[in-house]
Amino acid sequence: MILSSINIFLLIFSILFYNDTFQLPEKIYDNTKIIELPPKGTKFGNKVSREVSIGEPLYHKWSCNYKNHHNSMYCIMVHNCTVSHSKDDSSNQIISIIDEFGCSYYPSIIPNIEYIDDLQGGLPVNAFSLDIDKPALFFQ
C-alpha cells in the first residue's frame, strides 16, 4: 500500500513539474559598473567617470535589472571574467581574473565576489594596471 502511494505521488509530482514552464526573461542584466567606494556611513558610491590612480579604492559591482527584485526565482553568478588593455588591439594580452566557478585567480589583488542579494554582487578592489605604458583596463 505504501509503495503504490509513493508511486502515485511521484507521478503527480512529475506531471505538475513537467507542465509548469518558466519563462526566462531576455537580457535581465546591466553592464558591470565600477564605482567609487562610498563614504563612511553611506551605502552607495558614484559611478567612476574619471581617470583613477593606481591604488585608489574602488568597488566593482554587477547587478541584474529584473522587474520583481523580491522574486527568488532568479539569481546571478559572476564567472569567467577577464581584464585586458584594449578591446580591439591584436597584441592585447587577456588575463583571466575570475574562474568558471566565480572564484578569483588572484585573491590578494582581486578578492572573491560578495553577493549582496540574489541579483547583485561586487567586490572592493584597489585600482591596478597590467602595464605601466598602457593606462586603460577593460573588464569582461
UniProtKB/TrEMBL annotation:
Residues 1-140 form the ZP domain. Residues 1-21 form the signal peptide. The keyword Phosphoprotein does not apply. Keywords: Signal. InterPro entries: CUT_C, Cuticlin, ZP_dom. Pfam families: CUT_C. PANTHER family: GH04558P, ZP DOMAIN-CONTAINING PROTEIN. This is ZP domain-containing protein. It comes from Strongyloides stercoralis.
